[in-house]
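May I ask for a single protein's sequence together with how it folds?
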Amino acid sequence: MRALALANARRHDDARPDDFDDSTPFAELWCGTHASGMSDVVGEDGARTSLRDHVKSAAKATLGERVVARFGDDVPFLMKMLSVAQALSVQAHPDKALAVRLHESNPEAYKDDNHKPEMALCVSETFEAMSGFANADAVLAATTRHEEFGRVIGDDDAIEALRRAVESGQSNESDAVREAFKRVFTALMTAEKGKVETELRAMEARVRDDGTTATSSSSVESLFLRLCEQYPGDVGAFCAFVLNYVTLRPGEAIYMAANEPHAYLSGDCVEVMATSDNVVRAGLTPKFRDVQVLCDMLTYKLGAPEILTGDVVDACTRRYVPPFDEFLLDVVTVPRGTAYGVAAKPGPSIWIVHRGSCAFASAKDSKTFAAEPGAAFFVDADEECGVVVPDASTDDFVAFVATTNV
């Protein structure tokens, strides 16, 4: 991640902050048209135009007729690379109707009126996340195993209602389970701060003294201890027991629909989402929290998230397709000494070069340029391209390519 940001900064010296150096850590690289992180298109003369203005000036040519008809005259997705050193907030993203209401009522916190489904692809050795709610029986077991957790929830009637629903054989999809689970989660996240801090201290000390439950790096107890260290006294540490703890390997991805809780924990990923910066937070953050909104907005769908491993398109492309219209993600890998023709897509594409270098050519204007790690570029809809990786290249060429899913 740092190498990519560094490469970008070196290409555009005028955009570098004065205190920038090789040791500067980087958390995010954005490519898209959102006002919070607008990309520029750099012309052959060095002149800069915002990507938003570039596509708006010729929307049908740059975005394609299908995309314009479906989404209007803007790129419908935002592409990022994230490098997560410590846990990010327990959060969810609103659906479109809620996004409109939140933006109208609090535009400072909610920057736009769009929804934000998203997908994250692991590009480091591992990528850890909490994604979606765990099964009800696992949460009930945690309240029994850890009395402090149950005391913070405090709503014994809600816990008992959840227990009755599970023991009666009702599934995670049943209204009874979901309604009881909502009561349990809301009680947890709205617990009084002093009570949370007291029970966290007691539970952290006890779990640390336990020589069995906290020894495995994959256990939720180990995750709980890590969150306690990173965010002392934060109720979000208890989310280790209510959300699914997921560890992705390279080439694996997860997606999050609107109104589903999640938190990224560690590692590097490529993230693609609808063009939005709306985040409703409730824990593990010093930022603005909108706890009641988050508790009310969630679907309370329970169970492990789907892990995507991608579909083979051809010898050089693996495709990750979430159930959203705004985006999909291709991983393009071209071996040294190989030429690869990139088929035209019905919508726009944004490329980020991850590794290796190539000569990148457009059939649209017959122009060729060198693409190196950190390069990010925009390809029009219906534009055929070519990638040529020389024999002398030190590595295979690998790029992440976001495009639309319509």
About this structure: The longest strand covers residues 262-274. Confidence is low (pLDDT under 50) at residues 1-12.
